[in-house]
Amino acid sequence: MIYAGIDIGGTTIKSGLMDGDSGKLLADMSCPFPHARGVTGTAEDIRRSVDSLCAEIGIPAASLGGIGVCVPGSISPDMSMVLDAYNLGFHNAPLKAEVEKLFPDQTVTLGNDADIAAMAELNNGVFTGHKTAILLTLGTGLGGGIILNGRIFRGGNGNGVEPGHFVVDMHGDLVCTCGSRGCAETLCAATWLVNQGRELVRRNPDGLLARYAEGDPDKVNARMVIDCAREKDPDAEKVFDTYLESLSTVIASLIALFDPEVIGIGGGVSGAGEFLLAPLRQRVKEKNFFKKEYEIVRAEHGNTAGMIGAATLAKVGY
Amino acid sequence: MIYAGIDIGGTTIKSGLMDGDSGKLLADMSCPFPHARGVTGTAEDIRRSVDSLCAEIGIPAASLGGIGVCVPGSISPDMSMVLDAYNLGFHNAPLKAEVEKLFPDQTVTLGNDADIAAMAELNNGVFTGHKTAILLTLGTGLGGGIILNGRIFRGGNGNGVEPGHFVVDMHGDLVCTCGSRGCAETLCAATWLVNQGRELVRRNPDGLLARYAEGDPDKVNARMVIDCAREKDPDAEKVFDTYLESLSTVIASLIALFDPEVIGIGGGVSGAGEFLLAPLRQRVKEKNFFKKEYEIVRAEHGNTAGMIGAATLAKVGY
Question: Which among A72, B24, B43, B215 is most buried, taking Cβ atoms within 10 Å?
Answer without folding.
Answer: B43
